[in-house]
Specification:
Blueprint: H1 8-27, E1 40-45, E2 51-52, H2 66-77, H3 81-86, E3 90-95, E4 99-104, E5 110-119, E6 125-129, E7 134-141, E8 147-149, E9 156-162, E10 165-173, E11 179-186, E12 192-200, E13 213-221, H4 227-233, E14 236-241, E15 244-248, E16 253-256, E17 259-265, E18 269-279, E19 282-288, E20 299-308, E21 317-326, H5 329-332, H6 349-367, H7 373-415, H8 422-436, H9 440-463, E22 485-491, E23 495-498, H10 500-523, H11 534-553, H12 558-582, H13 585-597, H14 605-630
Helix pairs in contact: 6-7, 6-9, 7-8, 7-9, 7-10, 7-12, 7-13, 8-14, 10-11, 10-12
Length: 631
């Protein structure tokens, strides 16, 4: 049998074929998958044309192909894996000449809210939302037994125009025809932004047996110079429920029904959510974030809203509005039938009534002629004092009458001495006053009528945003305290600075009270035995009141101190004019003598009951005195 020999040609051919095979395999390897972060940004400015950024980087997870990605997203999110598969990370910007809103594709929520034309106390851009201080989330269950949060999911943005309005549609898609939509619509020159939450085709996705909860939280940024004043006195959680506007303080929570809106109101700016379909069983809460003013200087309060949403035919459909803007009474009252103007914090009852019907109209009128707000406050003070001058005159006239009959009242103490004659002295005192046509109330009532004005203006000036960061003389901001000297230490209840306007107001009130002391002394009847000496108390008040005012107003708005300074000066001037040129004590004395000659008027039933009670008290006093003597 013939032996086969080794074929060198065949061996060389096989080596060449193997080398070609290795070369082909090496050059046809699949490319590596690179994952980039999407930077898709869509900018909308209602004062310009729509600009859409062309640079879009697709966010692609590290999967070998789309099939594996779809499987991974479906395992995690169920049918809403479609949104993660087709969504891209990025932001959209809605902007007009008043406000700029940045909306994130992730969550479809506002992540920045910038209020234009305003700055913080340290001249920085004024943001209501920034750096994750706010969250808007809808939590819901799905029919495939998942609990999802919209803040974790990707929405797809679409920009359109509705006339002059810019519209941003953010859709959380389960397919091209099934989605949850957040629709934002911004108008030119308007702080109010339309906001709709609406689903389509979600009736087979949302598990109606699970609650659907809307959660909106916000940590309010500090914006003003005085953190204490901004946070403790003028930052509140307002809401309208059951047709009434109310508020809760920090540290409180409540469950309310038929909620039309909630307002996270700070001293001069508000974040508000309004709804056409009232929220029921809504939980509202406010928390003070300032534990130590030296450390906690970024935020004021934490505001929270948690409310269930109702399905209509298996779908969500809520028409709402966002408001990020100034808490300006003149602005808020333009949103008719909302009662948002009640969040302007003008005071309750008669105080709010005076601010709305008197002081704001006067202030707005003067503002139309003057641009210097310090001069506006001075002119407004003059107007108020002129209007109140009849009350000052009435009070001074009563004082003058009491001064004329004071000798007669002093004689009663000598005629009816001792505690046992206290009732008799009181009866005779009232009789003299009645015959002379003098009443103690005629002096008290004018002073009482001026008190509502005092408290109304106490609310008016510190909350009037027109005064914010407006300068006058040495005060750079009439809505905050003025500083002429900074102390190297902090005085309790006073602060670490010296304000000049409170000093001037305190000096003015001292001279006013000094001048008014004689008038008040005339109004008081002679000191009776066993009764406190009101004259001594008034002497102490002359010094105590200015000091109290100095401490109290040192951290308050300089506009308020300016008003009280000018007001006291004008009151002193009016009193001097009345005393020297209007009141004639001789004529008053003659009038009182004429009144004494007139027959006494019939007593009213109220007066008869008082006289009867005093007579019975006097008889009881006499009997007790007799019993003591017999013992």
């Amino acid at each position: 049998m013939e032996q086969k020999k080794f074929d060198y040609n065949t061996f060389i051919g096989m080596i060449l074929l193997g080398g070609l095979l290795l070369y082909w395999m090496n050059t046809n390897k699949p490319d590596e998958v690179i994952s980039d972060t999407a930077t898709n940004e869509i900018v909308v400015d209602s004062t310009k044309n729509i600009n859409t950024a062309n640079a879009i980087k697709t966010a692609t997870p590290d999967f070998a192909n789309d099939s594996l990605k779809q499987v991974a997203f479906t395992n995690k999110l169920g049918i809403l894996g479609y949104s993660a598969m087709h969504g891209k990370e990025g932001v959209s910007v809605l902007e007009n000449n008043l406000v700029k809103l940045t909306i994130d594709n992730k969550g479809g929520q506002i992540i920045e809210a910038l209020i234009k034309n305003y700055k913080t106390h340290d001249s920085l851009p004024l943001y209501m939302i920034k750096d994750k201080n706010s969250s808007f989330n809808i939590n819901f269950g799905t029919t495939d037994n998942r609990i999802l949060n919209t803040t974790d999911l990707l929405f797809e943005p679409t920009l359109t125009k509705n006339g002059e309005n810019q519209v941003l549609s953010m859709k959380l898609k389960a397919s091209e025809t099934k989605y949850l939509e957040y629709r934002y619509e911004i108008k030119p020159n308007n702080y109010m932004v339309g906001f709709t939450v609406k689903s389509q085709g979600y009736n087979n996705i949302i598990n109606s047996s699970n609650p659907i909860n809307l959660d909106w939280t916000l940590d309010g940024y500090r914006h003003e110079k005085s953190l204490k004043t901004e946070n403790t006195m003028y930052t509140h959680y307002y809401y309208k429920a059951d047709g009434d506007v109310d508020y809760i303080n920090a540290g409180k929570s409540d469950i309310v029904n038929k909620v039309d809106w909630v307002s996270y109101k700070q001293q001069f700016f508000s974040s508000i959510l309004l709804t056409d379909t009232p929220f029921d069983n809504a939980t509202i809460a406010a928390t003070d974030l300032v534990k130590n003013e030296e450390i906690d200087s970024i935020y004021t309060k934490k505001f929270e809203l948690k409310t269930p949403l109702a399905l209509a035919n298996g779908e969500l459909n809520y028409n709402m509005k966002w408001f990020y803007g100034p808490s300006d009474y003149n602005l808020l009252k333009t949103f008719k039938e909302t009662d948002l103007d009640e969040t302007a914090d003008l005071g309750w009852g008669i105080f709010g009534f005076l601010n709305r019907t008197v002081f704001y109209p006067v202030f707005n009128f003067l503002k139309g002629f003057l641009s210097n707000y310090g001069l506006i406050i001075i002119l407004m003070t003059i107007v108020v004092r002129i209007i109140m001058s009849p009350l000052v005159y009435k009070s001074y006239l009563s004082s003058a009458k009491m001064k004329v009959i004071r000798p007669e009242l002093t004689a009663l103490n000598d005629k009816y001495p001792g505690k046992e004659n206290a009732m008799k002295r009181q009866q005779e005192t009232m009789a003299i006053q009645r015959k002379a046509g003098v009443s103690m109330m005629s002096g008290c009532i004018p002073a009482l009528l001026q008190m509502p004005v005092f408290f109304a203006l106490f609310k008016f000036f510190p909350t009037n945003i027109a005064l914010r960061q407006e300068s006058f003389l040495w005060a750079p901001d009439l809505s905050s305290y003025d500083t002429i000297f900074t102390l190297p230490f902090k005085i309790p209840f006073y602060g670490d600075h010296v304000s000049l306007f409170p000093i001037l107001a305190s000096v003015a009130i001292f001279f006013y009270m000094k001048m008014n002391q004689s008038q008040q002394a005339n109004m008081q009847p002679p000191t009776q035995e066993g009764m406190p000496d009101m004259g001594k108390m008034m002497k102490y008040m002359i010094y105590f009141s200015p000091i109290m005012m100095l401490f109290f107003f040192n951290n308050y708005a300089s506009s308020l101190s300016l008003y009280y300074f000018i007001s006291n000066l004008l009151t002193i001037a009016i009193m001097l004019v009345i005393k020297n040129y209007v009141i004639d004590e001789d004529k008053i004395h003659a009038q009182i003598e004429e009144n004494k000659k007139k027959p006494e008027k019939a007593k009213s039933k109220f007066r008869q009951r008082i006289d009867t009670a005093m007579k019975q008290a006097q008889e009881q006093q006499a009997q007790q005195a007799k019993q003591k003597k017999s013992k």
